[in-house]
Amino acid sequence: MSGRFGVLAMVSAMAAWAATAGAQQQVNRKQTETLLADFPPAVYETTQVSPNARRVAYVLTDQGKQTVWLDGKPQETFDRVAALGFSPNSRWLAYAALRGGKWRVVVNGNQQPEYEAVGTPLFSPDSLKLAYVAKQADGKRVVVLNKKPSEPYDVISAGLLVFGPDSKQLVFGAVKDGQCYLVVDGLPQGPYEDLGTATGYPFSADGKHLAYVILKDKKLHVVRDGQLGPPSDDVGDVVFSPDGSQMASAAKEKGKWRVSIDGRSQPPYDAIGEGSLLFSPDGSRLAYTARSGKQWMLVVDGKPGKPYDSIGQVLFSPDGRSLACKVRAAGTQMVVHDGREGRIFNRVGDGTLVFSPNSQRLAYVAMVSHKDSCVVVDEKRRHRYDFAGYLTFTPDNRAPVYAADNGKKAFTVVDEGEAVRQYDGIWNVRGEKLIFDSPKKFHYLGVREGKIYLVEEETE
């Protein structure tokens, strides 16, 4: 499996294993194909799938020149292209292109102004705005928003741009004349001694609150809505609750890390897991991973759980009442669901834990060995395949749905039934689940004999 681009299959057959795979039931579900594009293996490494998994773009190189192909149609040829990305609504494709020593951003074939260099284009959540960092001929950096450059700066911090969730605000860090600023909608805030970029510039989901980290008198502070927080030696994650009413952060002081919620500190630990702070969907609970000595624990509502060698993905159920995580102990891995340890495997797939919409069922992908995977539903192991991925549940909570590869072909599986129509590979947005369009219909991209198709499938 290509972890980078989410392609499933494209592997050679394993004859001995394939003999055991044939016993699985095949189901003739209704499948409709729409040809999108030619899809030679040479383009796999540059392929981007749109967020709605209905469009595909890639770069084709010919005699040293590069051309972006969008849904099977070539765009203009350049010396080099990079940083392909679709807008959230999947309507627009943007990328950086080089010709004659100058870079420009191209959006659906339309070229924007030339610069010495350009960064990765970023669409706003509503897809109506496009921003990127650009280097001018004088060496100064600007942020270009809908073709209009900002005032110039000496540095744009880490090239990091952040849109607010309502798309109304654009935030970035910048340095000018030796001073650091946070620029919000073109207005510099500061100056500061330094500005942290590791935590980013998180907004609350409603866009009403903004947090960032600054350096003052050799100490780091979290600034929330312009208010300076307490000093610390280091700062980890900063996250808002779903409704924006609470903010949790991890900070280090005197050699120990603590998580605090709106200034209320929890017990100290040797480390807090990076990226692990997670509010429940209703904001009433907070979970994170913490290390004491060499052991890691899942801390929920301030209370540590059983220690393990490491803890991976942590997931709340949609109703927030249930909690699952992936753990490692003594060289094996398992899933812990509300404190109950599940089956032991060599490996549990990263990011594969999924609850059913009604929060009553839990599924994940487990690996017995290399090219020996299975989907586990309610701790019951399903059929074994070379690979399995894009796991989800039907909207009615009835059955798990996923893509699988038996060493020869790739296909979808609904509950225990394999689709009769099979492919050389199945592609989807990296790290995402199969997308349902209605209670009984889902879609994905299938590759067969050098062509890629939009496949729409109906469950029974």
- The number of distinct β-strands equals 50
Q: Strand percentage, roughly?
A: over 45%
Stretches where pLDDT is under 50 for at least 5 consecutive residues are 1-22
The DSSP helix count reads: 1
Largest sheet: 6 strands, antiparallel
Structural class: mainly beta
Q: Could you tell me how far the N terminus lies from the C terminus, measured between alpha carbons in angstroms? A: 29 Å
Structure, explained:
Helix content is 2%, strand content 54%. Strands 1, 3, 47, 48, 49 and 50 form a six-stranded antiparallel beta sheet that branches. A hairpin with a 2-residue loop joins strand 36 (332-337) and strand 37 (340-341). Mean pLDDT is 93; it is low at 1-22.
Task: Describe the secondary structure blueprint for this structure.
Blueprint: E1 7-9, H1 15-21, E2 26-27, E3 30-38, E4 48-49, E5 56-62, E6 65-70, E7 73-78, E8 80-86, E9 93-99, E10 102-107, E11 110-111, E12 117-118, E13 122-123, E14 130-135, E15 141-145, E16 148-149, E17 155-163, E18 170-176, E19 179-184, E20 187-192, E21 194-195, E22 211-216, E23 219-224, E24 227-228, E25 234-240, E26 247-253, E27 256-261, E28 264-265, E29 271-272, E30 278-279, E31 286-292, E32 295-300, E33 303-304, E34 310-316, E35 323-329, E36 332-337, E37 340-341, E38 347-348, E39 354-355, E40 362-369, E41 372-377, E42 380-385, E43 387-393, E44 400-405, E45 410-414, E46 417-419, E47 425-427, E48 435-438, E49 441-448, E50 451-458
Parallel strand pairs: 2-46
Antiparallel strand pairs: 1-47, 3-50, 4-5, 5-6, 6-7, 8-9, 9-10, 10-11, 12-14, 13-14, 14-15, 15-16, 17-18, 18-19, 19-20, 21-22, 22-23, 23-24, 25-26, 26-27, 27-28, 29-31, 30-31, 31-32, 32-33, 34-35, 35-36, 36-37, 38-40, 39-40, 40-41, 41-42, 43-44, 44-45, 45-46, 47-49, 48-49, 49-50
